[in-house]
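re: that chain from earlier
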Amino acid sequence: MSLTVQLQTMLAMVAMGGWLGMAIDTYSRLIRGRHWNKWITVINDSLFWILQGLFVFYVLLQINEGEMRFYILLALLCGYSCYRALLYRVYMKVLEAVIQGIIKTYKFLKATLFILIINPTKEILKFLYKLCMMIIGFLITVIFFLLKIIFTPFKWVGRGIWRLLPKEKFRKLINKLGFLKKLKNYIKRWLSK
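^ sequence. v structure.
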């Protein structure tokens, strides 16, 4: 490995140490305060460290074809300690500002969505429902009124025929046919309205 490649490797591993520090702080900030099952925490931590290890190895593979030496680990630790000493407070403030900005943007977009789309849609649907109920109620009233007008002459004719029938013979016939009693009672109730 040439001196240039070794220098590039050292600088890249120092940068990767800083990256690991930022990734660890971001990861711990995002999962802090969440009460997850232990297995979910174990899986999340394992995936995090596997991805970080693969990323570091990918960078190492691009620079020096994946050769691992002791000074590379020292460079990673040096980069991590430099991040902790120099950039930690600044990065945490920036990270918190970004997270709060995302949360405020989400709340704003959610409120805007409710104010501009969901609430007006609800009100329009309520109005259309009430309008449909009014139209259906009006149509039912009109239909019953028209049916009453149509059936009123039949009602008068039925009353006239009923008065002309010999009631004794008709009653005997109805008594013989038992199910017609119910029909007779129904007709009487309808005619008395």
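Residues 59 and 151 are 92 Å apart (CA to CA).
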